[in-house]
């Protein structure tokens, strides 16, 4: 008889996987798809930031959407929870199973076929386990590109990127994942297969389930494949690094660039002096992009898909005007693809450098774009005043109003001990300031389990009730990635 | 005692509005907001295409979101249905109340304030009743534009455009309404006010209720205001009219233009010879754009938001190359804003000319873009063969794979009688062909009541079940615009 359990904000009525279920799954999936070897399971039980550790008695690795449907049907019959997982590169532990071993880990990584790709149709249909950089390559091979990229592109999978509504460095121009999804194939919590992979540009039939599943973190179903927009390949690109005195100057520069070059600016990433120092210090081979360190920096990428204008010349002219106006202190434009890659590596190594440096408090916040410069100035001072010796490292997607607003413990402190003591209060303060600025405590990373309590604390009950209603309607048994994203009402515990 | 009723695919348990409810509403809304004068109500009881006629004992016209919330609370207590309505320009009778007078018509037109608009933030917050052309004007006044437009812009309202996920002539570049919505304020079916008007570019907190409400046709709540994206004003635009031999040539031309001018092409509208003739025949002052009539035409708008390139020169060059290649037969570029407006008027008058001409069968279909030319050739022939003497008028948004595929009865037939006799079979045939091509029977107009039966007939039960679950979860009483969009299970009738 399976044991009853209650975890997190309790989802009741679930069972631990018993031998009957495991035998059925083993028979369904075969040795390739039903893995119980601990060495093979272990790497997937911890989140990317190594703060959450879960358990699962088996790792399910289906090869087809039909197998996923069968798994969900079996899990629903047995009332056992499933935790879908892609590349396990998320930052909020949304794909880490619960500690008690009550859930089964379901990896989509074996489903890694590109089912179709068309230049005429500017679309690709990729299975959930396709790795982002492989999708980039497939698009490039037909003269197109998939305009979403992020530092984890070598591991992140399409299913995870859809389920977390991933952002990255091109949101400014192309929007997040939800703007690129044309269709979704998914297994719903009752084990039925939702076949919605058409590459239609316009389809106005009823509630948009694609949009509901995008960003649902596997709590409403398991995305098994997605049809995605492609855009024309870039004819040429210009990558520049500019030093500035303030974030407000950076935003002024962005608006000037937009006026001069339209939507040619695809990326506009803010990097403060302390983040750049950290990268130069911790990442082997990293070199300072400008002769003198500036208080703030931006990495700019402008592209030309038009074959006529020259993005390098346009960027050069715009930056030299900005230097004359005193908006930019110094700037360099990459003279080769290798230099461009080196500038990008500085930006994309910040998280890695932070990780090497040691524990810090991460926040992924957004406020209205125009208000971000003032927010950064004002709230950094407040935080550093309230927690003396602490330092804010604020970097990221200024053009989207989305900054990774991370807090480093004082230099002389034992970081882990400091975070244990002050972390919750410091994060709560950041989130309170964000809410006061009509912002979001999760701009692009999602909620997962890491932000669940703060999400519940700071979200309008009207909105929470609506989320709970949708969750219960589509997953009445509560088997889909429980304990993630949707804070259940405390009343649920007593049910 | 209020009378029980069952209508359409029955939503049970609803009552007719009784005097107690009406008195409460009159007290709440005052004479400006509680209208019983038949002359004032009548114009809003019939849909734009004049095929559906409804009844409502009163027209509710709240002035604030708070009043809307109070109306919904009273309606929920009394179990009386509400039918929200904006400019009443929809084509699927989604805002027409049921015939039996069981529902109350709720007009959002009095809520017509622009609450805020910001060039720095590239965003506007507009109440549901703001008319689209007024929003265009407000954006222009601060050097921005709202990039969604359609023929009904002088009447269509923001609330309706959000609730129907409107498309129009700029979807090619900017996507439909759901791509432009940053935030939504709405009254949910329990009368609670969902306050979600922040102008955040990135917000990854839970299921995206904005996306769920967009296109929900008022069946999940009443949109009272929306925060919307603005984009830079256009520095200059080029409008051209080109004549071609086939839709495939038109698509080839579009891909060439995209390669040469990137995303400068914002509109690419297909117009067949028979649609142009109809406009020239029926619309006073309309003049032929080219010397010789061509089998097919496209209206092209290319814009330059960059201040550097000249869209007229770019379009001129691209079109003259296409003429040399034999892709384009003849072309003209507007030499003035007046000429540009005249070309646009030809396109935007097609629906009006059809209306003057008399009844026809309308279809708003999409298939994958690359497949549309072959679909048009093949299925026109099949339809005209199956219904001898009938003619297809196929026009619209070729670049989106969305064509208005309308069928005219034979010239010598009594149109109304012909449609009564053959209309259902002809529309079913069109929709079957669309489904066979993995397309949508509603690309941009929505489902409303006009397409409800066909939507139910041709939709995967997995998808229908999910829609029904969501509807029941958020609107358990079924008071929000019943009989629209969501086909209820036949089993519901027996409940």
Break the fold down into its secondary structure elements and pairings.
Two copies of one chain form a homodimer.
Chain A: H1 19-33, E1 34-35, H2 38-41, E2 59-60, H3 65-78, E3 81-85, E4 103-107, E5 114-118, E6 123-127, H4 132-141, E7 144-145, H5 158-163, H6 171-174, E8 181-187, E9 193-196, H7 209-213, E10 222-229, E11 231-232, E12 236-244, H8 247-261, E13 265-272, H9 273-282, E14 296-304, H10 311-324, E15 330-333, H11 337-348, H12 350-357, E16 364-366, H13 372-386, E17 391-397, E18 402-408, H14 415-436, H15 452-458, H16 461-474
Parallel strand pairs in A: 2-4, 3-4
Antiparallel strand pairs in A: 1-2, 5-6, 6-10, 7-11, 8-9, 8-10, 12-14, 12-15, 13-14, 16-18, 17-18
Helix pairs in contact in A: 1-3, 8-10, 9-12
Strand content of chain A: 15-25%
Characterize the overall form of chain A.
globular
Figure out the total of helices of chain A.
16
What would the average pLDDT of chain A be, to the nearest integer? Answer: 93
> What is the total tally of β strands of chain A?
18
Estimate percent helicity of chain A. 25-40%
**Quaternary form:** homodimer
Largest interchain contact: A-B, 90 and 90 residues
What topology, given as strand order, has the largest sheet of chain A?
Answer: 5-6-10-8-9
N-to-C terminal Cα separation of chain A, in Å?
21 Å
Rg for CA atoms of chain A: 23 Å
Largest sheet of chain A: 5 strands, antiparallel
Q: Structural class of the secondary structure composition of chain A?
A: alpha+beta
Which residues of chain A sit in consecutive blocks of at least 5 with pLDDT less than 50? 1-10, 491-495
